[in-house]
């Protein structure tokens, strides 16, 4: 998406410089749901809370918005304490915008009126200018006097985004905003919305259980399980350098090979001796589980290590083979779709890893 719009900067809110969560616990009826959550979001960054259903993502987002009080810990925005056990700044005073899954546009208001909803305190001409700027930004110029029911789901979500961004909040919170949309629309809308937020230099936090959405949208992802943040990092880091077993298994497809440490950067495994490029810090002869992803295991006719294809999945440009090793371990392996092997056939396998991700057994 390209942006040709310009708008004078209205001095409503200063942009967020940083938001820090320090050991935040939140719960209901005295029971903690989110436990000891910590991370920092910097100016213009898009963060993401990623985790399975029920892990506490929305609860944490609601605490950021001010709809839940903290049991322990603190939240600071630009150094100012906005939430702790003893302090609770009300939602309307946090200058935070929200976009939800169920869109929730006002059906009886036009698109212009929807977007202008939070601008009642603005001078009329500034509000008009802001609305037309945002309509242009979200690609909906010409829709000013239409009503929500006459827009597609994707268009409605763009209006919801424009409405939330209109008062220039310091931070935009988005709770599963794309989950009601079909896959194709989501694929188009996610990068567009990222571009719009970046163009506005607006910090945001997305809640999702969909890692592809998280990767496409976020600069920084916090992976949650059972109320705890296991790791916060770039999408690249959490995929390639998971710090816990949960992150290794939840992000991408991960299998574990049984292995024995044989040196500072090497292990013996069912698929031979594997060397990494960093010292892994494990003791010699220690038994470990070595993370291997389907793209780490290559179909290799010259390899002495073989596995039997148990099932296969055609993915267009490649096959994903589910392969049983002689030890009985199951691993997944990508191969070009020109390598079309039958279920039951044995194929040679070799492992190619840059660095070894291991967990003690
Ligand atoms: N108002 C509430 N009162 C009591 N328990 C609640 C309340 N809201 C949520 N919970 C519980 O807190 C836990 C976490 O819910 P939450 O909605 O934060 O998870 P989530 O990760 O956002 O899940 P999902 O992806 O399914 O929306 C769940 O067990 C839920 O039942």
Automatic annotation (TrEMBL):
<keyword id="KW-0067">ATP-binding</keyword>
<dbReference type="InterPro" id="IPR013611">
    <property type="entry name" value="Transp-assoc_OB_typ2"/>
</dbReference>
<dbReference type="InterPro" id="IPR003593">
    <property type="entry name" value="AAA+_ATPase"/>
</dbReference>
<protein>
    <submittedName>
        <fullName>ABC transporter ATP-binding protein</fullName>
    </submittedName>
</protein>
<dbReference type="Pfam" id="PF00005">
    <property type="entry name" value="ABC_tran"/>
</dbReference>
<dbReference type="InterPro" id="IPR027417">
    <property type="entry name" value="P-loop_NTPase"/>
</dbReference>
<keyword id="KW-0472">Membrane</keyword>
<dbReference type="InterPro" id="IPR003439">
    <property type="entry name" value="ABC_transporter-like_ATP-bd"/>
</dbReference>
<feature type="domain" description="ABC transporter">
    <location>
        <begin position="16"/>
        <end position="251"/>
    </location>
</feature>
<dbReference type="GO" id="GO:0015408">
    <property type="term" value="F:ABC-type ferric iron transporter activity"/>
</dbReference>
<dbReference type="InterPro" id="IPR050093">
    <property type="entry name" value="ABC_SmlMolc_Importer"/>
</dbReference>
<dbReference type="InterPro" id="IPR017871">
    <property type="entry name" value="ABC_transporter-like_CS"/>
</dbReference>
<keyword id="KW-0408">Iron</keyword>
<keyword id="KW-1003">Cell membrane</keyword>
<keyword id="KW-0813">Transport</keyword>
<dbReference type="Pfam" id="PF08402">
    <property type="entry name" value="TOBE_2"/>
</dbReference>
<dbReference type="GO" id="GO:0005524">
    <property type="term" value="F:ATP binding"/>
</dbReference>
<dbReference type="InterPro" id="IPR008995">
    <property type="entry name" value="Mo/tungstate-bd_C_term_dom"/>
</dbReference>
<dbReference type="GO" id="GO:0016887">
    <property type="term" value="F:ATP hydrolysis activity"/>
</dbReference>
<dbReference type="InterPro" id="IPR015853">
    <property type="entry name" value="ABC_transpr_FbpC"/>
</dbReference>
<keyword id="KW-0547">Nucleotide-binding</keyword>
<keyword id="KW-0406">Ion transport</keyword>
<dbReference type="GO" id="GO:0015697">
    <property type="term" value="P:quaternary ammonium group transport"/>
</dbReference>
<keyword id="KW-0410">Iron transport</keyword>
<dbReference type="GO" id="GO:0043190">
    <property type="term" value="C:ATP-binding cassette (ABC) transporter complex"/>
</dbReference>
